[in-house]
């Protein structure tokens, strides 16, 4: 069934033409006029419909790409993305009895971990209460793949915390995988509690390439703080493109027993 031709929008000033085109196309995507999975009309067709040049159309499409509403695939053109679609994969963030993430065995490490000494930023200090800005930290970062998905896992322990716990990692400055670190702490008789902080941000640096993030798609960032006897001691951060996975947090509830 052919798409019903919409009334040609009137281009006015002072709003830039590319923005007016972008607004019109965005409304069409959100209303379903331009179906998800289908290409937008060609640059030539849109330029003729709006009475503008092709560079104006390119700028409008670039705006929608940055918003995650379309993805440009050659030779097909600008393909409409479903703005309300759920990610294809759901990951349970629960920990097993030995502190491993459910499904962690399905992920394969790409290359080798990178070990660095970094100074705590204001964001790190905010999560690791008792750690000050500039405090040196042991860190470990690794990249993992599963099918067509990628994720990065970053682990940090402040040097003073590692020394106080007499952790074996401080001697060789090589942190183990998170589950191994948690198991060692538990084996020493420490009481462990966990809290996740979930946020979204746009990728920066080489994250776009290393994680295979599409233009306009933010990263889902989960910062898991492990507290030892109530003191925040270990910071684990997982980063994935937000259109690839959603995280599940099983919870129980019921009448209070008190």
- The tally of helices reads 8
The total strand number stands at 10
Integer count of domains: 2
Largest sheet: 6 strands, antiparallel
Low-confidence stretches: none
Stated plainly, the CATH topology of the largest domain is called Chorismate lyase
CATH class of the largest domain: Alpha Beta
Seen as an oligomer or otherwise, the chain set is: single chain
- The radius of gyration is 24 Å
Rough shape?
elongated
- Write out the CATH superfamily name of the largest domain: Chorismate lyase-like
Report the CATH architecture of the largest domain.
3-Layer(aba) Sandwich
Class from secondary-structure proportions? alpha+beta
Cα distance spanning the termini? 63 Å
Mean pLDDT over the residues: 86
Describe the strand arrangement of the main beta sheet, using strand numbers.
4-5-6-9-8-7
- Summarize the amount of helix as a percent range: 25-40%
Strand content: 25-35%
- Helices and strands, in order, run as HHHEEEEHEEHHHEHEEE
Topology, element by element:
Blueprint: H1 17-31, H2 43-50, H3 54-66, E1 70-73, E2 77-80, E3 89-92, E4 108-119, H4 122-127, E5 136-146, E6 149-158, H5 159-165, H6 169-172, H7 178-187, E7 192-201, H8 207-210, E8 219-228, E9 231-241, E10 245-248
Parallel strand pairs: 3-10
Antiparallel strand pairs: 1-2, 4-5, 5-6, 6-9, 7-8, 8-9
